[in-house]
Amino acid sequence: MHQAHIVGVGMTDFGVHETPLTELFASAAFDALDDAGVGGAAIESFYLGNAMSGQSEGDTHLAPTIASHLGLAGVPCQRYEDACATSSNAFKHAVRAVEAGQHDVVLVGGVERCTTTTGLETPEMTSVFASASHRQYEQPTGISFPGVFGLLTTRHMHEHGTTEEQLAAVAVKNHGHGTLNDRAQFGTETSVEEVLDSPIVATPFRLFDCCPFSDGAAAVVVANEDVAADMEADSVAVTGIGHATDVVPLAEKEDLTATQSARDAATQAYEAADIGPEDVDVAEVHDCFTGAEILAIEALGFVEDGEGGKAAVEGTTALGGRIPVNPSGGLKAKGHPIGATGIAQLVELTEHLRGEAGERQVDGATHALAHNLGGDAATTVVSILEGDA
Amino acid sequence: MHQAHIVGVGMTDFGVHETPLTELFASAAFDALDDAGVGGAAIESFYLGNAMSGQSEGDTHLAPTIASHLGLAGVPCQRYEDACATSSNAFKHAVRAVEAGQHDVVLVGGVERCTTTTGLETPEMTSVFASASHRQYEQPTGISFPGVFGLLTTRHMHEHGTTEEQLAAVAVKNHGHGTLNDRAQFGTETSVEEVLDSPIVATPFRLFDCCPFSDGAAAVVVANEDVAADMEADSVAVTGIGHATDVVPLAEKEDLTATQSARDAATQAYEAADIGPEDVDVAEVHDCFTGAEILAIEALGFVEDGEGGKAAVEGTTALGGRIPVNPSGGLKAKGHPIGATGIAQLVELTEHLRGEAGERQVDGATHALAHNLGGDAATTVVSILEGDA
Questions:
Q1: Rounded to a whole number, what is the distance in angstroms from the first to the last CA of chain B?
Q2: Which residue stretches of A58-214 are H helix?
Q3: How far is A288 from A332, CA to CA, in rounded Å?
Q4: Which of A348, B30, B81, B262 has a beta carbon 3.0–4.6 Å from B380's, enabling a disulfide?
């Protein structure tokens, strides 16, 4: 089996972009190709993550269209959709193809616009997002994703005594990290008081517990060990990927706070990488809501079950802490252009493993983990990257 | 490298289905599992093709939802969208994973509803389909897919003298085949006169040149050679898959009638299977419009360029002819539930290779080919299956 490496990375700023999806993605993709030091002719296949441009922009069959725009027409193209885990799923398949020797060098990326640049206002976009909940059993209740994660988090508060202040501490941490990231949508600090004063969106989440709607794109070039050895930029090895699902709808979950698909995916990824959670130096996790980060760091084994809320308050997961989580600002402050999020996590982590993360750098990081979740916490992809320090 | 086999097949009738996507797919999937003689516990991964349920039914993150409905929650799930080539793309990735030894047994299928059961009327659904044309360069012109393939076919008529009567002969042939297929949406004969008397949809296509809007699902179980040897049902080997793209939009194509992605995909598939077009005993091709079948059989090398129209008139591509094309009735008569179409082609061909195709049986068929096309003729997947006769 070949060893897959990330050999080039690129991403746009996350925020508001008027440019069409093709051009938005091209900006990230050309940066990734330039970073790798390869031209488009080297790319043998294109893996695209895009969750909802059919619904939000009337734009489908997007992978070949983007490939054509990039000058890659001819290569096999595939679009993945798995709600918020969309581009991590594309990444997994790209890595598996390289591992199997089916391709030597491939392009993987994600793109999405979720702001009013699509022509949709926030209530309409909220409905588009909600299409990822169960069509028969959940959508008719009017629930949307703040409500889905609100239910999971409310149960965590009931079981473990997690507090609104602890939730707010996650937002404060990630906003703080975001101030160090030029690409982040929110570059401003917040405070526990400001979070707790913000309006309720869905119990227990207030506005500042929720990630924003964002436009953006991210791309990575994945190659085998031989190609990676010849590349100009530092490469990082993809040493483990786990991918698991959980029952849908929420009402059928055995344990609402376990996010079982994350535990299963993490187990697979740790085993493949031959490491444990204690070996991870830096992580990007799926903090679509503050409560989601708390569930994630427990599922990943960074803290004991029930200790996730305290971790944010005590600085365990802050830059400089025992296990820095979401140094990019996370979905909460960096932004969450759905189909781009999974790859953007990998861009951030690659920069840490290369020692190129600037003010956000986790010094000496050699092992990094990305956790990307979709739907009713029902899909999770966990990827582990390894660098040379 | 392992040898991938199709070890079980199932599909619903194509037509109008009131049942939700989960249940519609389950019907096909359980038939495929039963046919293979395996239970759900054997399935290691689930590959779903679904082109547009986000737009048409407000239903996304569908792969894990369907997996959960089937009792498969836990396994990695992925949804593919590549316009009308959607489920062939899913099939390719399933086969590659089995070939690489990443999985031993997987479930692959497609499901879609395109009729008024979705709540959308024909004009709205036509717009949903049109999202697969170029968002900036084509959609603003008002073109939809009858127009896209009408342009390609008009050029073929100009270059090769193809006539409306020849187009009609494709419809007559495929309707005739459809009368032998209980699962077909249209089980009635038509005539050249009836086709030519039907109203114009987009020059040169009349209503009877166009495939219908359909609901349906299809599924196959794919396994490696060891598992296949232990299965109850006859298995067929997947000996070649080609997958290529072409430039988008149409205006940038070098040759409008070549459907270059089909030629490239066919070349790859023939090379992998170590056969040529003369070795193919039966084929299912993407006849979304009568003209599309003519372009397809030329691109696949079944007839010389420019001879596709004559082939239908002369019976070359009819059951009993030199190379029977679309014995199922094709998209034209069997129906075209977008995301299910690619897998349904493989179900039909598997039945021929097993000698189980009933009145439609191509006697002694050992090599079968599926051609599934998406978007502006810009994605094509060609799959070659081999059986024991």
A1: 24
A2: 62-70, 86-99, 122-130, 145-160, 164-178, 192-197
A3: 6
A4: B262
Phi, psi of B240 (to 5 degrees): -165, 135
- Binding-face residues of A in 330-389 toward B, CB within 8 A: 374-376, 378-379
B65: closest chain A residue by CA: A248
Q: pLDDT tens across A353-380, in order?
A: 999 999 999 999 999 999 999 999 999 9
Best residue of A23, A61, A148 to probe chain B, by most B CBs closer than 10 Å: A61
Whether residues B68 and A375 touch (CB distance < 8 A) is answered with: no
A135–chain B Cβ distance below 8 A for any pair: yes
List pLDDT tens digits, range B230-288: 887 789 999 999 999 999 999 999 999 999 999 999 999 999 999 999 999 999 999 99
CA B43 from chain centre, in angstroms, equals 24
How does DSSP classify residue B290? H
Q: CB distance B80–A78 less than 8 Å? A: yes
Residue-wise pLDDT tens digits, B113-154: 999 999 999 999 999 999 999 999 999 999 999 999 999 999
Q: Could you give the residue ranges of the DSSP H alpha helices within chain B?
A: 21-36, 53-57, 62-70, 86-99, 122-130, 145-160, 164-178, 192-197, 225-230, 260-273, 290-299, 308-314, 330-334, 338-354
Q: What pLDDT was estimated at residue A231?
A: 82
Beta strands A215-223 and A5-11, pairing class = antiparallel
Task: Catalogue the active-site residues of A.
Answer: 84, 336
ipTM exceeds 0.95, yes or no: yes
Query: Could you tell me if B158 lies within 8 Å of chain A, comparing CB atoms?
Result: no
Dihedral (CA of A211, A213, A214, A220) sign = positive
Q: Which two tokens stand for residue A383?
A: 């990827």
Residue of A67, A78, A379 with shortest CB distance to B64? A379
From A52, A76, A100, residue closest to B54, measured CB to CB = A52
Whether B99 and A97 lie within 8 Å, measured CB to CB: no
Check residue A389 and give its pLDDT.
Answer: 57
* pLDDT surpasses 60 at B316: yes
Q: In whole angstroms, give the CA distance from residue A244 to residue B104.
A: 17
For residue A149, pLDDT beyond 70: yes
Our measurement of the distance from residue A153's CA atom to the centroid of its chain's CA atoms, rounded to an integer in Å, reads: 19
CA distance A265 to chain B (A): 9
CB contact under 8 A, B73 and A248: yes
C-alpha to C-alpha distance for B135 and A27, rounded to whole angstroms? 18
Pick the CATH number of B5-119+214-236 from 3.90.25.10, 3.90.580.10, 3.40.47.10, 3.20.20.70: 3.40.47.10
Same CATH fold assignment for domains B5-119+214-236 and B143-211+239-386: yes
A76 has a chain B CB within 8 A of its CB: yes
Please count the residue pairs, one from chain A and one from chain B, whose beta carbons lie less than 8 angstroms apart.
Answer: 193
Axis crossing angle, helix B86-99 with helix B338-354, rounded to the nearest 10: 60
The domain defined by B143-211+239-386 carries CATH number 3.40.50.150: no
The Cα A181–Cα A186 span in angstroms is: 9
| A128 touches B at CB < 8 Å | yes
Let me know: does A300 contact A285? Beta carbons within 8 Å. yes
Q: Are strands B105-113 and B5-11 parallel, antiparallel or unpaired?
A: unpaired
User: Is B96 an 8 Å CB contact of chain A?
Assistant: yes
What distances in angstroms separate CA A170 from CA A37, A258, B118, one per listed residue? 37, 19, 41
- Contact at CB, A378 and B61, closer than 8 angstroms: yes
Enumerate the domain spans of chain B: 5-119+214-236, 143-211+239-386
Rg (CA), chain A: 19
DSSP strands (E only) in chain A: 5-11, 46-49, 77-81, 105-113, 200-202, 205-206, 215-223, 236-245, 282-284, 367-374, 379-386
